Amino acid sequence: MWLKDRTMQRKSKNLKSQLFKVGFFFLIVGILVFISTPLRKLKEEVFEEMRLAIFQLNINETNNTTINNVNTENLEVTSENTEQAEANDKKANYSYIGELSIPKIKLRRGFVSKESRYNNIEYNITVANEANYPDVPLGNFILMAHSGNAYISFFDKLYKLQIGDEASVSYNAVTYNYRLTNIYNQAKTGTVAIYRNPNVKTLTLITCTHNDDYNQTIYIFEEI
Q1: pLDDT per residue as tens digits for the range 105-139
Q2: 32 backbone dihedrals φ, ψ, rounded to 5°
Q3: Is 21 part of any domain?
Q4: What is the DSSP letter of 54?
C-alpha cells in the first residue's frame, strides 16, 4: 500500500512538472508574439531614419521623367493585404530620391523612383506610374500607401487631415509646399478618378478609407 502511494505521488509530481514545462513554453511563445510587432515597427523606424539620412546626403541625385499633363488619371490600385507584408524581404537595399512630410500627423517618409523594384505598396509609399514628379510644371505627383495597423501602413493617419492642412515634398534639392484643398471617397473598383485643377501643380495621396473595407480616399493638395 505504501509502495503504491509513493508510485502515485511520483506520477503526480511528473505530471505537474510536465504541465509546468508546457505552460512555461506557451507563456514564452505568447510573450514573443506580443512583442514581435512593436519590435518590427521599431526596426523599420530605425531603417527609415537611416534611409532618410542617406537621402539627405544624396539629395542632388537627378532622374529622367515623362511629362503627362492631365487633370483626371486612371491608375491601378493594389488591394490592401497586410497579411502578406510579413512575407516580404525587409532587408531590401534601396535609397530614396525624395521625401514626403506632413507635420500635422508626424509623417516623414521617403520614396524611391518609379523605375525601382521597391516602388511597391508592400515596401514603400508608392509613386504611381501616371504621376509627374514634383518639378514638372502643372504636374500631379501621385502617391499611394496602405492604411491600417501593419508596419507598412504609412498612410494610416491621413484620415486625421482637414482642408487647409499642409504637406511638403523634397525632390532634387528643392522643397515643394502644398495645401490640402479636397478630400473625397471612391469605391474600390481597381481604378481611381483624380479630380484636380489642371492649372495648378498638385500632390495627390491615395489610401484605403479609414474603417471602411469598400472605399478608398483621395486627398488633393495644391501647391502654395
Answers
A1: 999 999 999 999 999 888 889 999 999 999 999 99
A2: -65, -40
A3: no
A4: H
